[in-house]
Amino acid sequence: MAGTSLVAGDVVVDALPYFDQGYDAQGVREAVSLVYLQTEIMRNEFERLSARQPLELLSMKRYELPAPSSGQRNDITAWQECVNNSMAQLEHQAIRIENLELMSQHGCNAWKVYNENLVRMIENAQKDLQKLRKRIQDLNWQRKNSQLTSGAKLREMESTWVSLVSKNYEIERAIVQLENEIQQLKQRDGEDKENIKDF
After folding, report:
1. What is the torsion angle, in degrees rounded to the nearest 10, for the CA atoms of residue 17, residue 23, residue 28 and residue 34?
2. Interacting residues of 65 by C-beta distance below 8 A, sequence separation 6+
3. Which residues on adjacent β-strands are paired with residue 5?
4. pLDDT tens digit string along 103-157?
């Protein structure tokens, strides 16, 4: 499997996924997780999911109008805070009513135009998406063909390399054997010369 190197937060991928093996090897999934869990939001969300905790719902606490607690029923400051909260809520509701009235008067046509623009944007986005999907499919097809072709060449080159290494080994072994035979012949030749002198 080709390597994946991480340098200063950047990911440089050097892989042939259609040809390489070993993506299920131990440690590969952990390395990928480290790359994608670098932001705090993603880490927190994955921790929440792994702990099977529910998603926090929208808090409605600010819209509540609680009375002072039983121990503060006679405290004027506590009652004043409750009244202030009630006035803020009342003003908020008044603004919402005003917005609804404005929308009923002016919002209908604006929403129609807005919706028409949205429909056009969606249609354009879908066309662009189809083009991108086609380009991705073509690119993946080209990559697959290229990698399979390169993989076959790599296998052929590896086979040739193994064959050449084996031949080199055989040649070296033959050389050693010939050197031994030459040495033995020299020894015999030396012995024959000695025998001739003695004779």
Report:
1. 40
2. 82, 85, 86, 89
3. 12
4. 888 878 888 888 999 999 999 999 999 999 999 999 999 999 998 998 899 999 9
